[in-house]
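Table S2 (continued). Query chain:
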Amino acid sequence: MKLITSRVGSFLTGNEIADAVMRYGLALARKQQLDLIEIPFVSTDGSVRRAQFLIGWQLETAAISRVEQSDELVEADTAQLLNAKADRVGVITARPFSAEELADLATVPVDFVESC
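Corresponding output:
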């Protein structure tokens, strides 16, 4: 289990979920973006609840390993969703030039290109 800490509080959650939160937060920070996420956590009375908070750009989030007597909190869908979002944020989306765009590039004046 890991304790995720942020500006809004601390949340004890499973290792996979915490790792996915940190991975997605890092991907967002690198792109200077934010997102609102929702994760399950174990409350002080032992019940499983849900928390929503922002992660990403200029937001401090940490995950601290904890040794707990309780069972590991596992919610595969949440970890998979956060990891998929991290993958999408980290991907540079580009497309090849169209034939028209290539033709336009071929007609750029030589003196313009040399001045760059």
